[in-house]
Amino acid sequence: MPMGKSPAKQLTLDEAYQATFLWLDHAGDPPVDISEAAHGSVELRTEKAFVRVRFSDGPVEQSSVLALLRAAETGKKLLLFSPSGFSPGALSIAETQGIALFTLDSHGRAIAETTHARSVSPDTEPDPPFAPRTVEEKDGGLMSYGPPTGTDASTGDEIEDSDSEGIDAAAADWSDCPSCGTTHYRAANFCKSCGTSLQSEVTHTDSSARCRDCGSHNIEHV
To answer: Which fold has domain 13-120?
Structure first.
């Protein structure tokens, strides 16, 4: 995406904050302090950086970059994330002052816009939190799944996996965030809604205790 260009679909401030939180955690420098949202921005402090998420209808201007400079903390890197991109003036000042600017695309992926941003980016990108889901939801419930199929090596025909049990097998691949209840695929590391770590706290629910119609775990055995 060209520098300074706003993405076609823009994240909200809350979504931009979530994407930034997950990016910092993936980079190995998780936030230790987070401010309340005010005047279209959220501030996050890590052990190594002072980070601001700036929301605006158009590209972030140089005044926002200068404001970040004034708020700088001694010895900490400066990072600015925006879902609407940056103006040429903002990019120019950031380059000369060593500030990392990142544009967040509609999937929550952080795109480095300055030299310093590229230098502080991790070797691998985190999974974009708002990318299209692999499993679509219909009418508040998970879609039905048939048993996975394989291929008979001798005939080339598809065969069903005898160990799978249709929707019950698929349901075991999903778990809920212990803090807010958002459903995630079992391989997810962090909740895309609240940032809670999932791998250490989530225990997968027995598929026999999951509603076939709506996917809820809130089931009473009678």
So the answer is: Trna Endonuclease; Chain: A, domain 1 (3.40.1350)
* H or E segment and range at residue 34: strand 33-34
Residue ranges of the domains in the chain? 13-120, 133-208
C-alpha 114/C-alpha 214 separation (Å) is 45
Token pair, residue 112, equals 């480095």
pTM score over 0.85: no
Residue 91's φ and ψ, nearest 5 degrees, are -65, -40
Distances 131 to 126, 134, 209 between C-alpha atoms, Å = 12, 9, 29
Separation CA 198–CA 214 (nearest Å): 22
Give every CB contact of residue 194 below 8 A, 6+ residues apart in sequence: 18, 177, 179, 180, 182
- Tens of pLDDT, residue by residue over 1-53, are 444 444 458 999 999 999 999 999 999 999 999 999 999 999 999 999 999 99
Provide DSSP, 109-170: -EEE-SHHHHHHS-SSPPPPTTSPPSS-EETTEEPP-PPPEEE-TTT--EEE-TT--THHHH
